[in-house]
Amino acid sequence: MLAALGLDNAGADDALSPVEALMRQAVPASIYTGPSSEAADAPSRIPSAASETEALAELRALASRNTVNRPMIGLGYYGTITPQVIQRNVLENPSWYTAYTPYQPEISQGRLEALINFQTMVAELTGLTTANASMLDESTAVVEAMLLSRRASKSSSTVFAVDADALPQTRAMLATRAEALGIDIVTVDFAAGEELPSELFGVFVQYPGASGRVWDPSAVFEAAHLSGALAVAAADLLALTLIASPGSLGADVSVGTTQRFGVPMGFGGPHAGYMAVRSGLERQLPGRLVGVSVDADGKPAYRLSLQTREQHIRREKATSNICTAQVLLAVMASMYAVYHGPDGLRAIALDVARKADALATWLIELELDIEHREFFDTLRVRVPSRASEIVAAAHDAGYLLHEVDADTVGVSVDETTTFTDLDRVAGCFASGTGRSFGYIAASEHGRLPEALRRQDEYLTHPVFHSHRSETAMMRYLKSLSDRDYALDRGMIPLGSCTMKLNAATEMAAISWPEFAGIHPFAPAADVQGYLELIEQLEGWLAEVTGYDAVSLQPNAGSQGELAGLLAIRGYHHANGDAHRTVCLIPSSAHGTNAASAVLAGMKVVVVATDELGNVDLDDLRAKITLHADDLSALMITYPSTHGVYEEQVVEITAAVHDAGGQVYVDGANLNALLGYARFGDLGGDVSHLNLHKTFAIPHGGGGPGIGPVAAKSHLAPFLPSHPLAQSAEHFGGYTFGGGVISAAPYGSAGILPISWAYVRMMGADGLRRATAAAVLSANYIAERLSAHFPVLYTGENGRVAHECILDLRPLKEATGITVDDVAKRLIDYGFHAPTMSFPVAGTLMVEPTESEDLDEIERFIEAMVMIKAEADAVAAGRWPADDNPLVHAPHTAVSLIAGEWNHAYSREDAAYPVHALVTGKYWPPVRRIDQAYGDRNLVCACPPVEAFA
Predict the structure, then answer these.
(1) In which residue ranges of the chain is pLDDT below 50?
(2) Does the keyword Oxidoreductase apply (predicted)?
């Protein structure tokens, strides 16, 4: 590889290795901190690399410091039983967790079907027309519903009425997000009969309430509609198997979480939130939406629908900044419903309701006052001045109850709760009398109000009735994964997305009960292992980025962006500079940048890029001068979105600081910097980091992601906080005072052991070597393919960073073959396509990462060279422009063997362009999908079985 770059003998004169000589050429000297630099010898707080065995032993020690008590706190998080067939064949299966977002739908049919199942499950349980493919968590989903209500309502009011019985974390997040957007939150006790504000654009009801109360909100929804407002309900899906759906009661939008459908609590996540809407609001849905279209043969095929409404396309016109979903967790939740079916879900819900009823009966026997007499799984018990005593006694007995206030205790029942548990918990209320409780024959529906009992059917599609045995379920999951392409099949060379190895040892700990079985609001004494792991990881991330403080709370890169911009906003407000609202963003930036800025209450001003793909310094200076008094921030990506290390980055950040602005450095490309430069040294004030890219957390088919936010000390006070956090202090002794960004205090903490293990086993030197390997691989591909496809951007020394952009526009001009044709033809060669048409239309952005060996890289290069030759054959007239293996790609097995072969090219040309494919061919399940058809004929639920006949 080095020889191809002319570097096999480089570095000998200054004792640098040839690889380090490459990095010297690629990384500007003004920011270089690699070997032989002054910063290279600085002591590191990251310990030397551990072996896999050593890292697992250390994780076991950390896990042992967590105490797994029986969770009965509720508040949106419950104990649940993950069927082993789902845990082993989804959560722990690389065919599912190493897949990418289904932007190439022909090779994503398995996970797209699983998501269609998810959408169908949510839509039918909520009684609404259309559900999306998951949200980040329940509280984020409520915020998105608020924003949807504002843009869809006919009211010009700024008031959003919020249920006094909403989850506390949701109320806190609503306050954070509303303040930046000028929305007025008004709290109303709906169940107590308080009236709505005279003018409003939306109402939000928790159903059942955080207190457990079950009541009929239909009158509230009707009153909201009369005011021109939209009605939103956050609903518990398990309860909806027994009680009337929000849609049937008049809700326009329903949101919530699917955590209790077989997804472990994981100290807060990741879990799949959900959102469903009534007919007419489909195009207002944030996030991803899976729909049904047809392929080139007219057969049904799944794909992402209505993508033009997504934030990464709408940029500063976006109404949401949601980018990632929670696909892996949505798949688990959907398969929980597929495995249990409607009868099984209803049986679980009835068991929960009856056990809650039995507990209430026993507590009433103790002459205790139950706050609400109608509930599903949660009851509030009035115990004047005894709440802390009872909660402590329960903790000593191995149970976590909710201390609502000094006089009230909350208890929530879930599918893991036994009658023995209930007896012991009831005993904690009995003041040590030794009272035992006899079996109670609870009513069939527990204490649910008869008028709200569900009458309609749900989950009627055959998929929810066909896989009840483990054998059938295992085979169904296998059949779906076989339709997909993931990293366990081969390289996914996506630029800007970093599809790297998620090592098995890194993944091992997430299934351990000491990490998976912890409630996010457990007392600090129970989570000392988690808190130590979190502080260590915060410290390691601070070091490699050059920042002082890190918050792990944001559960997606987009949320990390928002957190960083809100920190900048808070800083300016604290300094009396509330007028600083202008955010400068280069035209090449990720779409989430502009969307996040808008949601942080900022005005986006676009900065031009020059012909080399760098920020146009003259235009930047002109925009700074024009907006100097109002300048809030600059958002840049480094290395740039064009895949090069910009030489003038320090000059760029200095110009912003001189004008009183702050610099946000997007951390999407951090894997090209580790060990060679640091955001804080570039002049960055705050950044988000994609742990699902640089730090080995898997993409999971489109989520989970984690986007921690790191900042310099002056912004630390404005980083995300949480009212229910176990500790106020973070690494470095910092206390954060910003608002709530995720539902749980530490976001998706359940997968933090992955990144902890990655850094622990790499060490600082390993992180640096990984960066160099990734940059070497990208430059090797660029060099080898430059004779066939122009490399669009390079740095001053002719080098790229960790990715390269191949310009296919000349190919289209010469041959008529498009970037889409090349992407689909790569499937026939056994590859997932690189990133298409971003950041430049008609290009492919290739990122090999450090995980791919030379054989796989050579296989990709061979495929691209042969595809270029095929395109040239079209131009030369060997194949017609409308009948060649590129325009008809990808080729399914059925398309090759069914009927007569009437094409100008052979079956062998179609199926086996490379002889090596004969022994390991991946066959796509569908032919090229008609994207427009799916948008014109919107179907976002399970199609009937006859459609596939």
Answers:
(1) none
(2) yes
* Cis peptide, bond prior to residue 18, ω within 30 of zero: no
Confidence (pLDDT) at 431: 78
**E strand or H helix at 142, and its extent?**
helix 138-152
Residue 12 lies inside a defined structural domain of this protein = no
Closest C-alpha to 534, from 698, 722, 252 = 722
Cα–Cα distance list, 412 to 69, 589, 821 (Å): 14, 46, 55
- Would you say residue 526 lies in a domain? no
Give the whole-angstrom CA distance, residue 79 versus residue 66.
16
Considering just the CA atoms, what is the radius of gyration of the chain in Å?
28
Helices 752-785 and 854-875: crossing angle in degrees, nearest 10, is 50
**Residues 269 and 318 both lie in one domain:** yes
In-domain check, residue 328 = yes
786 with 657, same domain: the answer is: no
The first and second tokens of residue 367, run together, are 């002459």
Q: Which two tokens stand for residue 656?
A: 């912003």
3-state secondary structure of 894: helix
Beta bridge partners of 233: 205, 254
Segments in 451-508 forming alpha helices (H): 470-482, 504-508
How many whole angstroms separate alpha carbon 637 and alpha carbon 844?
A: 19
Torsion over CA: 595, 600, 603, 607 (sign): negative
**Cα separation values, 32 from 21, 35, 422, 663, 774, Å:** 12, 9, 61, 19, 17
Whether omega for the bond prior to residue 208 falls within 30 degrees of 0, making it cis, is yes
| The 3-state secondary structure of 229-254, one letter per residue | CEEEEEECCCHHHCECCHHHHCCCEE
In sequence order, the β-bridge partners of residue 256 are: 274
Query: Is the domain of 719 the same as that of 779?
Result: no
Q: Are residues 579 and 646 in the same domain?
A: yes
Indicate which CATH number applies to the domain containing 572.
3.40.640.10
Q: Are 74 and 238 in contact (CB under 8 A)?
A: no
Tell me if the pTM is above 0.90. yes
Other C-beta atoms lying within 10 Å of the C-beta of residue 855:
7
Q: Return the H-helix or E-strand segment holding 380.
A: strand 378-382
Report CA-CA distances (Å) from 602 to 441, 599, 685.
59, 7, 17
Residue after which a domain boundary falls, among 747, 781, 797: 747
Residue 156, helix vs strand vs coil: coil
Quote the pLDDT of residue 307.
76
Smallest Cα–Cα separation from 507: which of 527, 490, 487?
487
Determine the Cα–Cα distance for residues 378 and 804; give it in Å rounded to an integer: 55
Q: What is the CATH number of the domain that holds 799?
A: 3.90.1150.10
Helix axes 138-152, 168-181, angle to 10 degrees: 40
Q: State phi, psi for 472 to the nearest 5 degrees.
A: -65, -40
Of 482, 464, 527, the residue nearest 71 (C-alpha): 527
Q: What distance in Å separates the CA atoms of residue 119 and residue 129, rounded to the nearest whole number? A: 10
Q: Are 696 and 506 in contact (CB under 8 A)?
A: yes
Of 557, 711, 569, 681, nearest to 633 (Cα)? 569
Q: Is the dihedral of CA 130, 135, 141, 144 positive or negative?
A: negative
My answer on whether 790 and 703 are in the same domain is no
Residue 281's pLDDT is 95
Candidates 807, 785, 937, 913; CA nearest to 857 is 785
The answer to whether residues 480 and 577 belong to one domain is no
CA angle 247, 253, 259 (to 5 degrees): 95
Same domain, 286 and 316: yes
Give the strands of the sheet with 378-382, arranged side by side.
Answer: 369-370, 378-382, 408-412, 402-405
122-165 pLDDT, tens digit per residue, is 999 999 999 999 999 999 999 999 999 999 998 999 999 999 99
Domain encompassing residue 603:
539-747
Number of domains in the chain: 3
Q: How far apart are the first and last CA of the chain?
A: 50
H helix runs in 366-386, sequence order: none
Asked if 741 and 770 sit in the same domain, the reply is no
